Structures are given as C-alpha cells and as structure tokens.
TrEMBL record:
GO BP term (any one): lignan biosynthetic process
Keyword NAD attached: no
Pfam family, one: NmrA
Domain of life, per lineage: Eukaryota
UniProtKB keywords: NADP, Oxidoreductase
Gene Ontology MF term list: oxidoreductase activity
Protein name: Hopanoid-associated sugar epimerase
Organism: Trema orientale (Charcoal tree)
NmrA-like domain boundaries: 2-303
Gene3D superfamilies, sorted: NAD(P)-binding Rossmann-like Domain (3.40.50.720), UDP-galactose 4-epimerase, domain 1 (3.90.25.10)
Length: 307
C-alpha cells in the first residue's frame, strides 16, 4: 500500500522533529512547513539542514498566511500540527484551509497531552485545556477526518524533578507528595509519542478517535515514583504531604503562569484526570494495544538517566 504523504507543522520543535524522523523511518514522503524566519535562525538552521539531508521536503509557510498554507496542504494526505499548547487557537486558519482543500485523509491537531474533554480543572487552568477542546470541536464540526493523540505528560515534564514544582532535578533528601499519593499519572517520551502518532495516521481503527497512550511501565503514582527513586539512590526521602485543599490554595496564591506546574500536578495526581476513565468505554482506542511492537522508554529507565 502506498504510504501517505505527511506534512508536519512545527518540525523545528522537539516533537515535530521526532515526528519528521519517524515519518521518514516508516517510509512516508515527508514535508515540513517552515516559517521563513526559521531559515536564518541559528538555533533552528542546523535542524532544518538535518531534516533536509534526511529527505524531508521543506516548504516555506506560516499558520497566519493563508496563501502559504493552501499549496502545502494540497500536496499531502496527512497534516500533523505540533504548535505549543498556548498557541492552540492558531490552528483555526489551518483547519479552514484543510476543509477548503478537501483532500486531507487525516488531521492530527496539536493536543498531545491530557484529553481536554476529560480534564476537570477548567476553573483554574487559564483556558489551557478549553482552547484545545475548542479546536477539537471545530475539527468535528467541519467534518475533517482526524486522529487525536492523548499522550498525557512528556517525560521531560515534571518527571525530571520527581513532580516537585520549581525544581529541575530530582530531590535527594526531602520530597513533597500531593494528595494521597496514590493517584496515577502517565509519562511518555516524545520520541515514543512520535512513533505512535505516525503509526496511527494510516490506521482505519484510529479514524475520528482519540488514541490514548498508557504503556504499563509509564503509569505511576507519586508514592510509587518516590519509592522507585528511593530504590535507585539507595536512600529514604523525608516526605511532606500536601492535601488537595492546600495545593488549591497554593495554586490560587501563585500568579499565572508560575502556578501552571501545580495545576498540572493537581489535574493528574490529585484529580486523576489522566487515568480515571476506561479508554474503550469512553470511545477511545488504546495505542499500546494497537501497536504492541512499539516499545516505550519506561519511567524507571528514564529515572536511571538521572541517578
């Protein structure tokens, strides 16, 4: 079967770059929409050269420029957008262009996190998830064939600090545990997210579905995480428990955006927004079951790199 032609928007970002690499590995003709300014940006030019050398076709364009979007969209079968979450609404014009072109077999909008329809923090998340949900509703309303990837946390988010707000490295003496410590969150490496995404775009089982990623070795509560880390460093940590109420107080007393780490912690490890629902009965599909051959970097393996 002929491989779908894939256009990646955001290929100079971490996930976008991995998506381009994996797309090529799976023999997809791969295109990347690149802002004109990126070609003269020293922080991005080496990535662009690497992508070009690997076989990615670089196309100049911008999500704000309608004329530069239509032709790239017409060239491909699949569009994957990886703009940052704060820019979720910048996909509006792209969705209009995809609808206008009428030839896209699959659109993967920039969600790549917790399912915005399942999170229960809308009163404190500063529209972080509602903007993603708005894009989801627009895609559905336009009748565009889609696949949504709910990968929950990237391993580089919160895990390097052992879910300690404000830290960038794991603690070795004292640790804070939020809630009762038993609610589970999910961490998946971006390279693995890219592999699942590329596998899903041609799969009829993922058409108009949310693909949830919950690999067994990537689902963990705070108590389990602390115990795992203690085993690796050979030392017990002094634990401080922070209740749901106290965490909410801290969130409200801390100005935005400095409080967003705590919002994410509250959502995942207190409310359980990443794991409280059954995937199949909610109408989604389990990417881990669909593609058992794809092996993920586990939480334990990631923590080994921090010891």
């Amino acid at each position: 079967m002929e491989k779908s032609r894939i256009l990646i928007i955001g290929a100079t970002g971490r996930l976008g770059y991995y998506l381009a690499e994996v797309s090529l590995q799976f023999s997809h003709p791969t295109f990347a929409l690149i802002r004109d300014s990126a070609f003269s940006d020293p922080n991005k030019s080496h990535k662009l050269q690497s992508l070009r050398n690997a076989g990615v076709t670089l196309l100049k364009g911008s999500l704000e420029d309608e004329s530069s979007l239509l032709e790239p969209v017409k060239l491909v079968d699949v569009v994957i957008c990886t703009v940052p979450s704060k820019d979720a609404l910048s996909q509006n014009l792209l969705i209009h262009i995809i609808k206008q072109a009428g030839s896209i077999k699959r659109f993967v909008p920039a969600e790549f996190g917790s399912d915005p329809d399942k999170t229960r923090v809308n009163d404190i998340d500063h529209n972080f998830y509602s903007q993603k949900a708005e894009i989801r509703r627009l895609v559905e309303a336009q009748g565009i064939p889609y696949t949504l990837i709910s990968c929950n946390f990237y391993t580089r988010v919160l895990l390097p600090s052992l879910v300690q707000p404000g830290r960038t490295t794991p603690p070795r003496d004292r640790v804070t545990v939020f809630g009762n410590g038993d609610t589970k969150g999910v961490f998946v490496d971006e390279k693995d997210v890219a592999a699942f995404t590329i596998r899903a775009v041609d799969d009829p089982r993922t058409l108009n579905k949310v693909v949830y990623l919950r690999p067994p070795g990537n689902v963990c509560s705070m108590n389990e995480l602390v115990e795992l880390w203690e085993t690796k460093i050979g030392k017990k940590l002094e634990k401080t428990l922070v209740s749901e109420h106290e965490l909410l107080v801290r969130i409200k007393e801390t100005p935005y955006p400095d409080n967003m780490e705590m919002v994410f912690i509250y959502s995942a490890f207190v409310k359980g927004d990443q794991t409280y629902f059954d995937i199949e009965s909610s109408g989604g599909v389990d990417g881990t079951k669909l593609y058992p051959e794809l092996k993920c970097t586990t939480i334990s393996e990631y923590l080994d790199t921090l010891v």
